[in-house]
């Protein structure tokens, strides 16, 4: 049952990725403007342009180009970036860890903030505290990450300058890292001076990304908790003498968390989508920032590679959430 | 008289504030040449980075100060509103027409139509939306119509998903079955019976989508991919403000406040409209 579900999901995932590849390929091939002409100095002859065009395979029909590119992608060859003259896969893997670190930090913050607010709101249900949490989460949800980023830049970059507003790490620092996961590696190497510097750069973009998701978690988890708190087994725990906080943490939370978990999965993909503009806003050297540069430079192979990697990330997250849901939900497990 | 009173009581303070702000901003944008105190494009290096009116060094007539080229901030915000509202209305309506139509078809007919449309929605959801928007505008070339098309192409899925689910629910209701027994055709039932019942959701989503469109336009002009760079846009002003943030904070603060108020108003408006239309909540 589970295996069958997994295989069906894997198949739809492949169809989705193929669809994304087709859409992005067609969209950028329709683009007016010649990326090859932009690469060459103004004095280049037509013969030079034709030669370079053949080198990048742009002289073939669009269908031929697609299948040449696709067969490369399946072998792990995403082509060569036109603007940076480097292997696309290498460039993407160089930047992806920065984006993943940012997204995971933001996710953890969203779960921590939203979870705390939900538990507090459920414990203090019907009071001014709950009303305050409702207003705060409503506001956090209505304002998108781009605007939160700007608000944070003004508050903690300019008014009270405690955090850095641009870059990933202070440029004068000597980095001993072997991976691109600077934050995680600095913790493992116990170089907390570097961790602090990295966090000073990462906290504001992470909070900007986290706030809308934290609001959704707060609203949904609080609602589920309030529903569970009226059920018999919870009442029983209360009669046994557990305090309200203990009842929530020990009894109610694990049964109320399932709907929130599903939603967090979908919302996490939105959060990752948000890194594109938030990285730009904070000049954070991640995949999204590179993607915008690639679009501005009309770097077709690089754009294709980045979009496909984002899409792969999205479908993998959805698959993981779906499988976790199936494993955790007793009705599906035994169904 | 009585009806008027009921209607007025229905308007909560939040709806009145939200509607008030949107009306003010919209009127200012429509009559921009009449209400803007200065020419939004006029540069004057003698007047660069003037602070807002309550600070030392402010000049009369430049209420919110000037940017690093000496252009009047308030006038640029008012003229920027024109782009914002045109994009908000046009893009949201276009996304709504495409998404609601496909959602209605998928939800009401089910079967193969539903499977194909849902698969396309899945593919669309696997794109990072902001990157997709930037890519589309880069492909279509900058300009107002490109921005509108890009937003509609990306955001139709929001309408499609919600309307599909609602239409599916409505289709199972008795009244649809009754209409079928009464001899109405399938398309007739879809348009005459199912559509009116999903209109409240469409209207609420439409208001929400206008707020989203304003943000996406601001993001596009922030990365310099919206309309031509000469015309003022809220995102363009924000991009300038981000650069001169340590010298002139007001160039970032005022467009940011304008954007936040506009987005909050559109979402409040959408919620209130939904509550008003919803027979259960009413």
Automatic annotation (TrEMBL), chain A:
<protein>
    <submittedName>
        <fullName>ABC transporter permease</fullName>
    </submittedName>
</protein>
<feature type="transmembrane region" description="Helical">
    <location>
        <begin position="302"/>
        <end position="328"/>
    </location>
</feature>
<dbReference type="Pfam" id="PF19300">
    <property type="entry name" value="BPD_transp_1_N"/>
</dbReference>
<keyword id="KW-1003">Cell membrane</keyword>
<keyword id="KW-0813">Transport</keyword>
<dbReference type="InterPro" id="IPR045621">
    <property type="entry name" value="BPD_transp_1_N"/>
</dbReference>
<feature type="transmembrane region" description="Helical">
    <location>
        <begin position="202"/>
        <end position="221"/>
    </location>
</feature>
<dbReference type="Pfam" id="PF00528">
    <property type="entry name" value="BPD_transp_1"/>
</dbReference>
<feature type="domain" description="ABC transmembrane type-1">
    <location>
        <begin position="96"/>
        <end position="325"/>
    </location>
</feature>
<feature type="transmembrane region" description="Helical">
    <location>
        <begin position="102"/>
        <end position="122"/>
    </location>
</feature>
<keyword id="KW-1133">Transmembrane helix</keyword>
<comment type="similarity">
    <text>Belongs to the binding-protein-dependent transport system permease family.</text>
</comment>
<dbReference type="GO" id="GO:0071916">
    <property type="term" value="F:dipeptide transmembrane transporter activity"/>
</dbReference>
<dbReference type="GO" id="GO:0005886">
    <property type="term" value="C:plasma membrane"/>
</dbReference>
<feature type="transmembrane region" description="Helical">
    <location>
        <begin position="7"/>
        <end position="31"/>
    </location>
</feature>
<feature type="transmembrane region" description="Helical">
    <location>
        <begin position="143"/>
        <end position="163"/>
    </location>
</feature>
<dbReference type="InterPro" id="IPR000515">
    <property type="entry name" value="MetI-like"/>
</dbReference>
<dbReference type="InterPro" id="IPR035906">
    <property type="entry name" value="MetI-like_sf"/>
</dbReference>
<keyword id="KW-0472">Membrane</keyword>
<keyword id="KW-0812">Transmembrane</keyword>
<feature type="transmembrane region" description="Helical">
    <location>
        <begin position="256"/>
        <end position="282"/>
    </location>
</feature>
Automatic annotation (TrEMBL), chain B:
<protein>
    <submittedName>
        <fullName>ABC transporter permease</fullName>
    </submittedName>
</protein>
<dbReference type="InterPro" id="IPR035906">
    <property type="entry name" value="MetI-like_sf"/>
</dbReference>
<dbReference type="InterPro" id="IPR050366">
    <property type="entry name" value="BP-dependent_transpt_permease"/>
</dbReference>
<keyword id="KW-0571">Peptide transport</keyword>
<dbReference type="GO" id="GO:0015833">
    <property type="term" value="P:peptide transport"/>
</dbReference>
<keyword id="KW-0813">Transport</keyword>
<comment type="similarity">
    <text>Belongs to the binding-protein-dependent transport system permease family.</text>
</comment>
<keyword id="KW-1133">Transmembrane helix</keyword>
<feature type="domain" description="ABC transmembrane type-1">
    <location>
        <begin position="81"/>
        <end position="270"/>
    </location>
</feature>
<dbReference type="Pfam" id="PF00528">
    <property type="entry name" value="BPD_transp_1"/>
</dbReference>
<keyword id="KW-1003">Cell membrane</keyword>
<dbReference type="InterPro" id="IPR025966">
    <property type="entry name" value="OppC_N"/>
</dbReference>
<dbReference type="GO" id="GO:0005886">
    <property type="term" value="C:plasma membrane"/>
</dbReference>
<feature type="transmembrane region" description="Helical">
    <location>
        <begin position="130"/>
        <end position="154"/>
    </location>
</feature>
<feature type="transmembrane region" description="Helical">
    <location>
        <begin position="83"/>
        <end position="109"/>
    </location>
</feature>
<keyword id="KW-0472">Membrane</keyword>
<dbReference type="Pfam" id="PF12911">
    <property type="entry name" value="OppC_N"/>
</dbReference>
<dbReference type="InterPro" id="IPR000515">
    <property type="entry name" value="MetI-like"/>
</dbReference>
<feature type="transmembrane region" description="Helical">
    <location>
        <begin position="248"/>
        <end position="269"/>
    </location>
</feature>
<keyword id="KW-0812">Transmembrane</keyword>
<dbReference type="GO" id="GO:0055085">
    <property type="term" value="P:transmembrane transport"/>
</dbReference>
<keyword id="KW-0653">Protein transport</keyword>
């Amino acid at each position: 049952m589970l295996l069958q579900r997994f295989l069906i999901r894997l198949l739809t995932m492949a169809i989705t990725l193929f669809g994304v590849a087709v859409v992005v390929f067609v969209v950028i091939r329709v683009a007016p403007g010649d990326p090859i002409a932009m690469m060459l100095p103004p004095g280049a002859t037509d013969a030079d342009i034709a030669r370079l065009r053949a080198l990048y395979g742009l002289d073939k029909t669009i269908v031929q180009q697609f299948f040449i590119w696709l067969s490369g992608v399946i072998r792990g060859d995403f082509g060569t970036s036109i603007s940076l003259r480097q292997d696309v896969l290498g460039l993407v893997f160089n930047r992806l860890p920065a984006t993943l670190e940012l997204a995971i930090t933001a996710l953890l913050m969203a779960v921590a903030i939203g979870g705390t607010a939900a538990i507090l709101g459920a414990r203090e249900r019907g009071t001014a505290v709950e009303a305050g949490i409702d207003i705060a989460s409503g506001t956090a949800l209505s304002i998108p990450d781009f605007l939160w980023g700007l608000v944070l830049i003004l508050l903690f970059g300019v008014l009270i300058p405690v955090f850095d507003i641009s870059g990933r790490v202070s440029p004068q620092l000597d980095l001993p890292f072997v991976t691109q996961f600077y934050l995680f590696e600095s913790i493992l190497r116990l170089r907390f001076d570097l961790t602090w510097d990295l966090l000073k750069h990462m906290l504001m973009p992470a909070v900007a990304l986290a706030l809308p998701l934290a609001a959704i978690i707060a609203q949904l988890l609080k609602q589920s908790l309030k529903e569970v708190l009226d059920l018999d087994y919870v009442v029983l725990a209360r009669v046994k003498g557990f305090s309200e906080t203990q009842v929530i943490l020990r009894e109610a939370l694990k049964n109320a968390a399932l709907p929130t978990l599903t939603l967090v999965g979908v919302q996490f993909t939105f959060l990752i989508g948000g890194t594109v503009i938030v990285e730009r806003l904070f000049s954070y050297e991640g995949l999204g920032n590179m993607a915008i540069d690639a679009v501005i430079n009309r770097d077709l192979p690089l754009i294709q590679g980045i979009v496909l990697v984002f899409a792969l990330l999205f479908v993998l997250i959805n698959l993981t959430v779906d499988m976790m849901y199936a494993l955790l939900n007793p009705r599906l497990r035994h169904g | 008289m009585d009806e008027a009173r009921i209607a007025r009581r229905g308007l909560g303070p939040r709806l009145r504030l939200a509607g008030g702000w949107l009306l003010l901003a919209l009127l200012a944008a429509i009559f921009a040449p009449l209400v803007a105190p200065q020419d939004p494009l006029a540069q004057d290096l003698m007047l660069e980075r003037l602070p807002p009116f309550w600070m030392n060094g402010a000049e009369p007539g430049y209420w919110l100060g000037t940017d690093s080229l000496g252009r009047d901030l308030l006038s640029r915000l008012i003229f920027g509103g024109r782009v914002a509202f045109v994009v908000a209305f046009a893009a949201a309506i276009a996304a709504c027409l495409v998404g609601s139509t496909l959602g209605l078809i998928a939800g009401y007919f089910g079967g193969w139509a539903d499977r194909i449309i849902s698969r396309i929605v899945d593919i669309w959801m696997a794109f990072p939306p902001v990157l997709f928007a930037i890519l589309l505008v880069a492909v279509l070339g900058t300009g107002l119509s490109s921005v509108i098309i890009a937003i509609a192409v990306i955001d139709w899925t929001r309408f499609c998903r919600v309307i599909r689910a609602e239409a599916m629910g409505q289709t199972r209701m008795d009244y649809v079955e009754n209409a079928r027994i009464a001899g109405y055709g399938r398309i007739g039932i879809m348009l005459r019976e199912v559509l009116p019942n999903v209109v409240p959701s469409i209207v609420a989503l439409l208001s929400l989508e206008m707020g989203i469109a304003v943000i996406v336009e601001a993001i596009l002009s922030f990365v310099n991919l919206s309309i031509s760079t000469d015309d003022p846009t809220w995102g363009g002003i924000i991009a300038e403000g981000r650069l001169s943030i340590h010298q002139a904070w007001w160039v970032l603060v005022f467009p940011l406040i304008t954007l936040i108020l506009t987005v909050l108003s559109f979402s409040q408006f959408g919620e209130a409209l939904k509550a008003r239309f919803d027979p259960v909540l009413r």
